[in-house]
């Protein structure tokens, strides 16, 4: 499962909008883009980059923002035969992994550096996302980095438990494509 969202970043001179696509399993930031407007194009460009670089997920999750419900964006997902999943309106916790990413990016980088303009922000976030994926250990990943988990395809990423007590774990095939695997947990009697 991949997910996406947009956040805004206050600059010394105006605002910037940041979109990122994250792999739920590993928390790896697969692609990101900045824009000075909320035009759909930068989101589509981010999606196309992630698909070209990492292949395609089975499911793509987003909120119901106009960029992600646009024909341009959904047509890319449909063309690639990716299942579209959208959060409930106003339910930020449905996309908790990306919301947590925004908090991390802002508190570990953006607020500390106080970027003045888009050029500074691009350079800073390029460095930060490299650090985030390659060097920053995550507690939820057993203190491994997103890259370590993504490359090894060993668990520790997104775990979804349905109401019947079945734990859905994302697994990886030998070709690197994600597939769901199911494991019973708890009392199923």
From TrEMBL:
Gene3D superfamilies: Ribonuclease H-like superfamily/Ribonuclease H. PROSITE patterns: INTEGRASE. Pfam families: rve. GO terms for biological process: DNA integration. Residues 1-154 form the Integrase catalytic domain. It comes from the Bacteria. InterPro entries: Integrase_cat-core, RNaseH-like_sf, RNaseH_sf, Transpos_IS3, Transposase_IS3/IS150/IS904. Residues 170-189 are annotated as: Disordered. GO terms for molecular function: nucleic acid binding. This is Putative transposase.
